[in-house]
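Example 3.2
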Amino acid sequence: MGVLRGAAVLALRGPLVAALALGLLLSGCGGASTPSTNRVTPTAYVTALCEAVGPFERDVAARSGSLTSTSGLTPAAGRSELVSYLGALSRDSRRAVVRLGGAGVPAVSGGNSFAATILSTFRRLEVTLGRSEKLAAALPTTSQTAFRSAAVTLATAVRDSLGRLGVGLSTKGNRVLDAAAAKVPACHAL
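Structure, written as tokens:
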């Protein structure tokens, strides 16, 4: 596995999916973003949630798997591929934000806080990926060594930033949402 593919997989797949999959079914502790105020059943909410997050997670895996090894690429081609990859993930996260914003608020204790936390987390993800795309566009292409070094540094920064996205999510599960998610096929893959 080349530096580009390995760095991207490490940067996004592990911490992102772990933080979000864990956070999806956990009760949140508030957030700055406000979802739609429509109160919906727990089943309707977790269905919308999993249908928003599932495609994003699959896209991360598919796009990570499609990155090529940097060993055969020039630094400019590697940079271009990384910019394209991060831009696609940024757009994917934007679609998830839109869907999550329209998911409503689960009619459970702490539902407002939970929905706001999930939405806020995905909005921060969108910002992080957008910034990372811009940083990738500035990667040096003067030599393979300079490119690889900067790409690894960028991947580490992205991984660390994404790993922090789950901070603030409570470890106390909401039993009603957990029970609803257990019945929703779209949630089984998360």
